Amino acid sequence: MTTVTQDAPLSERAPAVVSPIPLCVPEIRGNEWAYIKECLDTNWVSSVGEYVDRFERALATASGTRCAVATSSGTSALHTALIVAGVEADDEVLVSTLTFIAPVNAIRYVGAWPVFIDAEPDYWQMDTARLAQFLEHSCERRGSALYDRATNRRVRALLPVHVMGHPVDMAPLLELARRYDLIVIEDATESLGARYRGTPVGHMGDVACFSFNGNKLITTGGGGMLVTDRDDWARRAKYLTTQAKDDPVEFEHGAVGYNYRLTNIQAAMGVAQMEQLDDYLAAKRRIAERYAAALADVPGLTVMRQAPWAQSAWWLYTVLVDAVQFGMDARALMRRLGAQQIQTRPLWQPIHQSKPYRDTTPALGCPVSERLHAQALSLPCSVGLHAEQQTRVIDAIVAAREEVGEREHGKTPGR
Ligand SMILES: Cc1ncc(COP(=O)(O)O)c(C=O)c1O
Questions:
Q1: Which of 239, 240, 265, 344 has its CA 20 to 30 A from that of 120?
Q2: Which of 262, 103, 229 is nearest to 168 (CA)?
Q3: What's the rounded Cα separation, in Å, for the pair 200 and 198?
Q4: What is the pLDDT of residues 238-279, one digit of tens each?
Q5: Does the global pTM surpass 0.85?
Q6: Closest ligand 1 atom, CA of 77?
């Protein structure tokens, strides 16, 4: 690096070094090194071992379920969950459209079809009123099964995704599942530690899935978990994710299985991370509270909210940017913050609009998700985000709005 002395002319001075602030990165400060080293020292590096068992127990405890099965990713957990739940080719599964694409792809892996349900405008989760409307008006019972009148397909399951750390309003959803005899598969990948009316996410449906990829609250580098109270489903999940071995010595297999195993090394990291879950959740809550306090009154910004019935995990802190009132849209703000080394990101393109699913009709149109996609911007919110870094983010956003405001009122002529 060039050092520039105080008396160097301005033109020769190096620009001040501004350190980048990433969106959401892992926090590794506990027993990760020690536990992984133990795996290496003892040669227990592969897909069985004490840490796999411990990690499964930790997740069962955190989600309040009887069983947990570790998997290679959240996506493989979802795929396995759909299989053990009995979702078959040509069935329909009602799923949030405002989500990362993985749960929808998993529906296609089993040959079933997604029917997209819009988000509600307050907490940005699957809209259970729209779900009810679809089930009531677009479906009919034939014998003991429910059919989508438009497609003639059997409606088999609901797949709510608790996005951005906040739970879906599960009581009406579970009531619909009971009334129409549908299976509930929770995608809780983004919301470990969140609660719905006191119950942990992952313990309300028949089966639920978590992810431990690099940007999740708890990470194993890559990994996932399926949790359920149904011992038979858990046993089947373990069997299918470990190549459906009937006889491990003779290599006899009883079904088409998968290599969806998590390694002991990854699980060791997961166990160390889980030891810090409460601290991480507290850090996320502090970050969210500070953003809310600092940004709530900025014209044109809507801050993320927590429903009265929810305890959010605040996984990805997100604001909505109203282009007219704020004076620039979410993408312009993203570019401006990016130029200041502050990483932000829009939410996912609603899946009913994404290329592989464009031709799949959304249940009732999804205008809310489309608006949220246009306006949402996720802000830096790593567990290890320093107060000064957060101040920089807040100041940069406030400055962007003030500058636009000043321009509008002609206070800064010539700019
Ligand atoms: C909502 C949602 N579902 C599923 C996944 C898939 O998890 P993984 O990346 O571990 O396969 C993710 C995250 O990546 C996600 O955000």
A1: 344
A2: 103
A3: 6
A4: 999 999 999 979 999 999 999 999 999 999 999 999 999 999
A5: yes
A6: 11
